[in-house]
Design brief:
By secondary structure, the protein is mainly alpha-helical. It folds into 3 domains: 212 residues, Rhomboid-like (Rhomboid-like fold, Up-down Bundle), CATH 1.20.1540.10; 27 residues, no CATH class; 55 residues. It is 59% helix and 6% strand. It is built from 16 helices and 8 strands. A two-stranded antiparallel ribbon has the order 1-2. The protein has a two-stranded antiparallel ribbon with strand order 3-4. A two-stranded antiparallel ribbon has the order 5-6. The radius of gyration is 36 Å and the shape is globular. About 13% of the residues have low confidence.
């Protein structure tokens, strides 16, 4: 085990060195607050406590700090790994500033929604533990948001081959794993499950409707619909319910009705609207087609690198044919020479003849 630690440390430092200032700052803050947790109760001071988040206490700063608070070394490792994965896979597509905005939006929304959920649970049960004994902090909120973003950008990537698991199923699998840990008693509260679920939901809402990019705002492609997060048997019912919720949110002006606009490439500035496709979906399919083509070409090159026995036999046959005399090939390919007399009475021939010349009397 000890011999792998230097290698892991070297890979970690090299990966961290290639990231931006945003990723390095978040990782450094997580490590610093983990070390500080040995001397102070950082989850109480910087984590979201539902009873302290709302008036009259109003600890609003915890919405910004709960994501970088860790009390255990395993949680710190998961937190840093999540941030670094986002820096390696999402930051090249979005930029450092957009990644920072996504980090802030997901964590603030997840902390606020988690606090509201525990507040409503207290109103239904009158159990004060839901207000003052619960601490929402750590990596689960941003983990859920990052998995949703990876589903958007590389959802068809295969994570496991046996059994076959694609990246688009990662948000549901993460929630299932946290729920199993909670049922097994390995987690003290259900706060990580609530944070991960609300982080995934807030990340999807931001990426679906509000993220700005060069093609406009949001991503209305079919592969990123809310129903796509559920099994195929449940997708029609979930899609119908999600459509009703979205229509209600559009009426109360919380969400906008998205119009898909496409430039047909004409010299004029005319654009058209199509109901079933999206430019991001088309770009994603184009990338998948290019990837499949590159893999097929690579397999063809690998097969052609080793000659077969048939190729060797064909080469030997060609060498035998080239060793035969040129004269015999010409004799078989050209017609018999014709002897015609010119006006001077001399014999003409287009090839060399070895016959004896006629004698003159």
């Amino acid at each position: 085990m000890n011999r792998y630690l230097p290698v892991a440390r070297q890979h970690f430092l090299s990966a961290l060195a290639s990231t931006s200032v945003v990723v390095k700052s978040i990782c450094a803050t997580v490590i610093l607050l983990y070390l500080l947790s040995w001397a102070a109760n950082t989850p109480y001071l910087l984590g979201v406590t539902p009873g302290f988040l709302f008036p009259p206490n109003f600890w609003i700063w915890t919405l910004l700090t709960h994501a970088v608070v860790e009390q255990h070394v395993f949680g710190m490792a998961v937190n840093i790994a999540t941030v670094m994965v986002a820096g390696r896979l999402l930051e090249p597509l979005w930029g450092a500033l957009e990644l920072l905005i996504f980090f802030a939006v997901v964590n603030v929304a997840a902390g606020l929604l988690s606090g509201l959920s525990y507040l409503f649970t207290y109103a239904a049960t009158f159990d004060l533990d839901y207000l003052f004994a619960v601490r929402v902090y750590g990596a689960p909120a941003f983990l859920g948001g990052v998995l949703v973003a990876l589903k958007q950008t590389a959802g068809d990537t295969t994570v496991l081959r046996v059994p076959q698991v694609r990246l688009k199923a990662a948000p549901a699998l993460a929630l299932l794993a946290i729920a199993v840990l909670r049922l097994a008693g390995l987690l003290d509260t259900s706060a990580p499950l609530a944070a991960c679920g609300y982080g995934a939901l807030s990340g999807w809402v931001y990426l679906r409707f509000y993220q700005r990019h060069s093609r406009g705002r949001g991503d209305m492609s079919d592969h990123f619909a809310f129903a796509s997060f559920f099994p195929e048997a449940l997708q029609p019912a979930v899609g119908f319910a999600a459509g009703l919720v979205h229509a209600a949110l559009v009426k109360i002006k919380i969400c906008r009705k998205m119009v898909k606009r496409y430039d047909v490439g004409a010299p004029s500035s005319i654009t058209i609207s199509l109901p079933g496709t999206d430019p991001q979906d088309a770009e994603r399919r184009r990338q998948l087609a290019l990837k499949a083509l590159n893999e097929r070409l690579k397999r063809v090159e690998d097969q052609s690198a080793w000659p077969s026995m048939e190729d060797e036999e064909d080469d030997e046959d060609e060498e035998v044919r080239t060793d035969t005399p040129l004269l015999s090939s010409r004799e078989t390919s050209q017609p018999a020479p014709s002897t015609t007399q010119n006006p001077t009475g001399q014999q003409e021939s287009s090839i060399i003849s070895f016959e004896d010349a006629p004698t003159h009397s």
